[in-house]
Amino acid sequence: MSEIAIVTGASRGIGRAVALKLAANGFDVCVNYCANESAALGVVAEIEALGQRAIAVRADVAVEADIVRMFEAVDERLGVVSALVNNAGIIQPQMSLVDMDAARVNKIMQINVTGTIICCREAAKRMSTDLGGVGGVIVNLSSAAAKHGSAGEYVDYAASKGAVDTLTKGIAFELALQGVRVNAVRPGIIDTEIHASGGVPDRFERMGAGLPMGRGGTPEEVADVICYLLSDAASYVTATIVDVAGGR
Ligand code: NAP
After folding, report:
1. Which residues are within 8 A (CB) of 65 and not within 5 positions of it... i.e. 6 or more apart?
2. Domain range enclosing 48
């Protein structure tokens, strides 16, 4: 029987690449999205073409009830989740600290931090051997920004990813004796649409050349590391944060 994965924000970018790689590795996949249903349905069709089951579930990870409903949909339509990738995340237009307001910061924190914690909670309820589960694996998407701080661009986003690093450690320690491994990856500059949402669509091209490896990364290169962390090859890896940033 196939293992079952939930990938948040899987309609495009890194999440899409993870969903497709997991399907190629024999997982059935819940393709979560927030706004772009047709893109999510496209990913579902690609997964089905690989011979795996997939469902598209709309859930805004900023909304607790949406997350609960998404996990219940997976229970009913796919089965017991064994892998969770907390990929959904946003930036906001680049801005100096002095121009930021609380609404902007709260929105980032709700999606990137609160959403990640609540998704971990729902996964833990199903995976924890203390609660009758058979274990599982969680991978959270942090960012190189957590280390560098993103001064003058989005210190709020960087702080949200610092929180992802910390919650990854804490939740990993809390669940370590309950059959659940929890790790994170810190991508650097990756070729997705997220840069356009920060108001700098050519950021990938502009920043890539200045990186130690002389280029930005692809969503597939990040997905490879995530799929490794989800696999049995990483059976002794937990509470670890892996940089996938070309040396940055
Ligand atoms: P992206 O191309 O902008 O895609 C974002 C995905 O998240 C989309 O599928 C989007 O769905 C979904 N999403 C957005 N808000 C959501 C919400 N409230 N609830 C549920 N889903 C939501 O982003 P990406 O570049 O692939 O980034 C993926 C993750 O990697 C993020 O956590 C990001 O912070 C992290 N990361 C990216 C980079 C990079 O350079 N790309 C670097 C470091 C870290 P809809 O299309 O349906 O709205």
Report:
1. none
2. 3-244
pTM for this one? 0.99
**Residue with tokens 């609540």, as numbered in its chain:** 118
> In the chain, how many domains are there?
1
Q: Which residue numbers are catalytic?
A: 157
Q: Residue 240 is part of a domain; what is its CATH number?
A: 3.40.50.720
Token pair in block for residue 88: 């959904």
Pocket test for ligand 1, best of 84, 87, 167, 204 (most atoms within 8 A of CB): 87
Distances 126 to 15, 58, 134, 146, 180 between C-alpha atoms, Å:
22, 20, 8, 29, 10
CA of 14 from ligand 1 middle (Å) equals 7
The three-state (H, E, C) secondary structure of 37-71, written as one string: HHHHHHHHHHHHHCCCCEEEEECCCCCHHHHHHHH
pLDDT tens profile 127-180: 999 999 999 999 999 999 999 999 999 999 999 999 999 999 999 999 999 999
